[in-house]
What does this fold into?
Amino acid sequence: MSHLNQYLTALNIDADLPKFELLNLMIARHMAMFSFNNIDLLLNKGQILSLGFDDIQDKIVTRGRGGYCFEHNKLFYAMTEELQLETAAYLARVTFNKDDEAPLTHRITIVTLDGQEYMADVGFGRYAPTCLVPLTGEAVTGANGDVFRIVEDKGVYALEMIKAGEFFALYIFEKTRCLEVDFELANYYTNCHPDSGFTKNLVVARICNDRTLVIRENIYSVIKNGIVSQSEIGDAKDLQIKLSHKFTIQISDDQAELLF
It folds into this structure.
């Protein structure tokens, strides 16, 4: 079975769908099935997460372990290549509506369909768009109801989403050619640098159709129709149960203690 067939089978998707519909379904089901998380990064401090394709395929698709942007979006990029689509991968600066300088620490994919460019991002956790976002400025609504658009100014593109009734910039990017070594360098920074948030606190997210499930530090949140319900994770066993039942991630008792 090819990598693409294994991936589409895991997501229960028919490969013969029209490409636009196929990609949107891939994005939505990818994020519903495979969680965004930094679990293995925290459990293996000092080790660099592998960006080898076979390792990523095994981790995300075969073992259902999830991962973060460099893993999720490399996998998705490879699937668009196997679909023989015109595709490119770029690095983005995560700004969260701030003017502060931010490093290039996020990977995205740009796919061209019928001459129109769209961004696909299955690796941005809670705020990832669950559909293709055109680079035209047109607003689109994801499977979970979040509204996104990409605006451009002098060659700099910004992904924005509606938050508290207004558009809010999540990250910016330019269409500058990136080599695999550029992603490896950014992965190293994100994986190891003391300023990287992923080295400090547990982050887990899964977007399941109409609701988004999030663990951040010791808080479990469910977001539906813009309403957030939160509860505190009481102990390591509670964390272990939530990861298993809500995110389909299995961890040992010792790993739960370490993460908690």
Notes: Helices lie at 3-11, 19-33, 39-43, 53-62, 69-82, 180-192, 236-247, 253-259. The first strand starts at residue 36 and ends at 37. Residues 204 and 215 are 5 Å apart (CA to CA).
